[in-house]
Amino acid sequence: MHSSRNSTDTRRLTVARIAQARAHWPRAAIFWVVPLAAALFCVAWGVASLGSRGPTITIAFATADGLEAGRSTLRLRNVEVGRVTRVRALRGQSGVRVDVQLDTDMHALAVADTRFWIVRPRIGPGGLSGLDSVLSGAYIAAATGGSRAPRATFIGLDAPPVTEDGGRHYTLHTASLGSVAIGSPVYHRRARVGQVTGYALDADGHGVSIDVFVAAPFDRYVDVDARWWQAGGIGLRLDAGGMKLGTPSIAAMLAGALAFASPPGRASIVAAPDGKRFRVADDEIDAMRTPNAPAAPVVMRFDRSLRGLDVGAPVDFRGIELGNVTAVGTEYDAARGDVTMRVTMALYPDRLGQRYRDVLGNGDTDAGKALLRTLVARGLRGQLRVGNPIANRSYVALDMFPHAPPASVDTNREPIALPTVPGTLDVLRVQIADIAGTLSRLPLDRIGTDLNAALVNTNTLFTQLDTELAPHARDALGIARQTFTAAQAMLRQEGAGTSNLHRTLTQFARTSRALRALAGELEQHPEWVLPNASSTTPPADAPHPASAAR
Question: Where is there biased composition of kind Low complexity (predicted)?
């Protein structure tokens, strides 16, 4: 009975404890629910946040001017698709690194061929750009490609890329970049068809390679033998042919430009493949010239001043430009003991035409040398001529001079020295010098003295006759005396030269005519001077001496 009482007490105690625990449970549950719910909320928020973010990429730029972490954005087609989270400069390295957090659905931007650049207000060859960033601040723009290879690090561009919906790329080589820059336009027949995408200095430093893009459908106009030239700036050419002025569009003048065209006479165009390389000429005139065969170096020596003859001056053969001057200098001639002017030039004999090439044969240089010797024997000479007197520009002319002194040419010596003849102006100067020398050798002083003495004696004779002649004869003597007095006055002038001598001789001729008229009158009327003359009045039909003197 005692044991049953103990078991009953135990059951009562257990029930009491359970009841007590149940009484405390609502308060304990409320205490743990709040932090548990907060933890669950944080986990859910973190999962949702991670799920709403895209990948993080890093872009390297030369400068981060205008970019701010947390404010600057990444835009694709002007739509925000990410945000800059960090901007840092690397120690010991040039440039900056920019971390960008992409949006959830922008995983396609984190691929190999995506391009990034900073948009800020700038003035370039294409005009003003990035004006929308004036208010919003600088931002990063993106352009997608076609790759699917993932990438997390990129190198940003310095300028916006070219929109390449269709077209071809070409590489141009030039000695100088000129005014061309990235974004400079490319023209065909003065219509814009593409632009410059980049350039780089050659490894040897002897030239510049320019990358250009020509958009479709204009790329089909780029022939495999297309001629390219610098089309920016004002082209002023002043040479022996005169002055030529080329004025491009205002955009090309300010930003520089390139242009291309098909070769002259090309009936059909064969489109150049992508990546074709071309050479760039300085202007359209140089670009359209026929490609030159290997040049033949030639030397000419002149005995006159070479003022006005510059490097690049043309070498002309009856209107055909055979080459150009490559060097101008002096050379001491030991045999003559004198200094001559040496002109070196590059000639392109193939420009003489098909017949000349037929005579040469297929690379037969002996035939060309024999032909040159024949031409020199027939009078082929070089001559310095003035092409543009206003600009004082000269050129070298090759022509045939059949009456030139005999000369020969040594075709086995390089460079070949062609004989020359004096220029037209040089010959004229020599002739004028000869005439001046002949005049200087004339005894003009003695002639003037003798003529003056003759005039004095004649004047004395007139004075003597004046006292003895009749009045009618005195009129003729008066005219002759006036003429001789005028001639004598001319001879007495200070510095009398050839012109005064000519006028004196003219007066002397008039006096002679007057004397001849007077002699004729005296022969017909001797009574004018005879003391026993019956009359001093001439007949009515007798001519007046004054009219005869005229």
Answer: 531-550
Which of 270, 287, 304 is where one domain is finished?
A: 287
Average pLDDT over residues 37-65: 73
- 127 vs 136, 177, 198, 254, CA distance in Å? 20, 20, 17, 10
DSSP category for residue 271? B
To which H or E segment does residue 482 belong? helix 471-492
How far is residue 443's CA from residue 485's CA, in Å, rounded to a whole number? 23
Residue 110 lies in a domain: yes
Query: Would you give the distance in Å from CA 42 to the centre of its chain?
Result: 72
Q: Count up the domains in the chain and report the number.
A: 4
Q: In this model, does residue 58 exceed pLDDT 80?
A: yes
- Assigned domain for 35 exists: no
Nearest CA to 84 out of 121, 47, 118, 113 is that of 118
* Same domain (yes/no): 100, 200: no
**What residue has token string 């004729």?**
520
142 & 178 share domain = no
Q: What's the confidence (pLDDT) of residue 365?
A: 67
Distance CA 371, CA 356 (A): 9
Please give the mean pLDDT across all residues of the chain.
75
Q: Is the pLDDT of residue 161 over 60?
A: yes
Residues in the chain: 550
Where does a domain end: 396, 430, 464? 430
Q: Could you tell me the pTM of the whole model? A: 0.52
Q: In the predicted model, is pLDDT for residue 246 greater than 70?
A: no
353-363 residue pLDDT tens: 766 666 655 44
The answer to whether residues 424 and 448 belong to one domain is no
Residue 314 pairs with which residues in a beta bridge? Answer: 324
The whole-number pLDDT of residue 176 equals 87
For residues 280 and 368, membership in a common domain is answered with no
Residue 282 sits in the same domain as residue 319: no
Please state, in angstroms and rounded to a whole number, the distance separating the CA atoms of residues 481 and 463: 9
Cβ count near 304 (within 10 Å): 14
- Indicate if the pLDDT at residue 173 is higher than 90: yes
Question: What's the CA gap between 333 and 290, in Å, rounded?
Answer: 38
Residue 38: pLDDT above 80? no
| Judgement on whether residues 140 and 57 belong to the same structural domain of the protein | yes
435 within a domain of the structure (yes/no):
no
Strand order across the beta sheet in which 153-155 lies: 115-119, 139-143, 73-76, 79-89, 96-103, 53-61, 153-155
Residues pairing with 79 in the sheet: 76
* Residue 188: band (very low, low, confident or very high) from pLDDT cuts 50, 70, 90: very high
Q: Quick one: tokens of 65?
A: 């001017």
Q: Tell me the C-alpha distance between 410 and 366, whole Å.
A: 13
The whole-number pLDDT of residue 540 equals 47
**Whether residues 146 and 182 fall in one domain:** no
Task: Quote the domain boundaries for residue 93.
Answer: 53-155
User: Tokens for 202?
Assistant: 């050659």
Residues 386-418 as b or e (16 or more Cβ within 10 Å = b) = bbbeeeebbbbbbeebeebeeeebebeeeebeb
The answer to whether residue 535 sits within a structural domain is yes
Name residue, tokens 């409320």.
Answer: 30
Contact 85, 99 (CB under 8 A): yes
